[in-house]
Amino acid sequence: MGLQKLSFKVSSLDVNKRLDNFLAETLPNKINTPLSKAKIRKLIIAGAVYLNRHRVRIASKNLIANAQIEVYLDLAKLEQGYSPTQDKEFVMKKEHILFEDEYLILVDKPAGLPTQPTVDEARNNLFLAIKKFLASRDKIVDPYLGIHQRLDRDTSGVILFTKNTKANPPIAEAFSQHQIFKVYKAIVSKPNITPQVEWTIQNYLGQTRVNKGKQAKYLSVNEGGSFAHTDFTLLEILKNSLLVEARPKTGRTHQIRVHLSEMGMPILGDTLYNEKKDKSVSRLMLHAFSLTFIHPISKTEMTISSPLPKDFKDFLQKYR
């Protein structure tokens, strides 16, 4: 399932209850998975828990009525542990902004950087980088930033955040109703038979069993799972690969990666779904190229694009 954002509201019955005790009672039921008190404390200390939009690292913190709690949880990573040493060093700058107004900010995310806070408090992420940038630029102690979508750590490209709570309901509704049109570019392994120019995949995706020390994977399933729909276009045939466009109609974890790998066209640099180790690339060659949506306040249609990054352009130039 990847990184989940889980929200809770403190009732009058839970007033003065310790934060760790509250989560020990509510979190396992929310995710239908047992969690030890030690793991819950680890989440809190790591900075993955927010109380009224402020990060809290004190497990014994007493709760007040109607307090809002948000937990950022990745079960696989919580179980396995991982090293962030390969994460990209990133400092948010003005040139990373693709669009900004009072309500929205769309940013050009680099590859190699998590989108959201993780269980590792020392790990950099795009969400905190943007908040630090806005706080410094606008002289605001704790600027508001709403998360509505996520890109995988090694995926680059355009990503949308809200800056004002007034924008949250229409943006959340647009994402949930698949009214935000997403376009991705991917460089994939060349299959035995070149695909048609246009094709569509519609199936159901489920998570494989998560073993300790291994990252969760997804695959098509006959029963259960979540519906996934992606439209594809073949853009260019390269020497040993293909450049394709992916337009996901749903937003399942690893959706594009699974759909391409199960067609015999895994994305280059995908260490999870591509068995072939290609030394010609240093990361997952998947780029979120554009978002088209209706502005939540002005109601005008917008298309915000992220230019292909240098590693994409260098690869295309070399292998055309």
Question: What does this protein structure show overall?
Answer:
- Strands 5, 6, 7, 8, 9, 10, 11, 12, 13, 14 and 15 form an eleven-stranded mixed beta sheet that branches.
- Residues 81-85 have low confidence and may be disordered.
- The chain is an alpha+beta fold and 320 residues long.
- It has helices at 19-31, 37-45, 75-80, 126-138, 168-176, 255-261, 310-319; strands spanning 4-9, 49-51, 54-55, 68-73, 97-100, 104-109, 146-147, 156-162, 181-189, 198-207, 218-220, 226-237, 241-248, 286-294, 301-305.
Number of distinct helices: 7
What is the CA-based Rg, rounded? 20 Å
Overall mean pLDDT stands at: 89
* Broad structural category: alpha+beta
Low-confidence stretches: 81-85
Which term fits the overall shape?
A: globular
Q: Would you report the number of β strands?
A: 15
End-to-end separation: 36 Å
Order of helices and strands: EHHEEEHEEHEEHEEEEEHEEH
Name the quaternary structure.
single chain
Which strand-content bin applies to the residues?
A: 25-35%
Describe the biggest sheet?
A: 11 strands, mixed
Q: Helix fraction?
A: 10-25%
Highlighted features:
7 helices, globular, 320 residues, alpha+beta
Secondary-structure map with pairings?
Layout: E1 4-9, H1 19-31, H2 37-45, E2 49-51, E3 54-55, E4 68-73, H3 75-80, E5 97-100, E6 104-109, H4 126-138, E7 146-147, E8 156-162, H5 168-176, E9 181-189, E10 198-207, E11 218-220, E12 226-237, E13 241-248, H6 255-261, E14 286-294, E15 301-305, H7 310-319
Helix pairs in contact: 1-2
